[in-house]
Amino acid sequence: MTVLVDAAVWKWQGARWAHLVSDESFDELHEFAQRIGKRRLGFQGDHYDVEEVDRHRAIALGAEAVDSRELVRRIREAGLRRRGDKPSWQRVAYAPSGRTLDLGSRLVTFGDPGMRLRAMLPFVRSLDQASRSALYVDDQHLVMLFDWVGPEAVVELEGIDRVWAGAPRADGERSLELFVRR
């Protein structure tokens, strides 16, 4: 395993953040990030930003702690450095816990991909009341996101191109992301 994490020195929103990378492959990085509960939407093109508590969890699970220069050097040498290749997710709908994400008419505007997500609405309603939920879009995907505290949700759904079910984070919350290619 060659997952690396630097020191949590970057301040943002009242927390300290570090970078989580792999100097072997993005597949390895995504699998590891999922094990510590990171959202797939949080991928920054070549790394994940991780709060200090998640940095400690990553190290406990086998990530190698390195300084920032070493981290950048190793992902450059591996050909995995992608500056400026960050996905441009736009949140188009949001509902806090206890509220239903109003998607019916909004999904129609996305054609077939929107209709595939719309077919998930019965499943979505079962998660909606217990979670924060949102709809994100970029040039390639529509994504329904759910964050909640509780057991793992169903992870095989027909019509969905990718299901990302994260392990519980340090705060006990987990994410489920349903990706549909546009």
Structure report:
The protein is globular. The chain has 2 domains: 3-77; 90-181, no CATH class. A hairpin with a 3-residue loop joins strand 7 (132-137) and strand 8. The longest helix is centred in the N-terminal third of the chain and has 10 residues, at 26-35. The chain contains 6 helices and 10 strands, in the order E-E-E-H-E-H-E-H-E-H-H-H-E-E-E-E. The mean pLDDT is 89. With 182 residues, the chain is of the alpha+beta class.
From the N-terminal CA to the C-terminal CA, the straight-line distance is: 33 Å
- The overall average pLDDT, rounded, is 89
Order of helices and strands: EEEHEHEHEHHHEEEE
Q: How many strand units?
A: 10
Number of domains: 2
Globally, the shape reads globular
Number of discrete helical segments:
6
Question: What kind of sheet is the major sheet?
Answer: 5 strands, mixed
Fraction of residues in H or I helices = 25-40%
Estimated share of beta-strand residues: 25-35%
Class per helix and strand makeup: alpha+beta
Cα gyration radius (Å): 17 Å
Poorly predicted runs: none
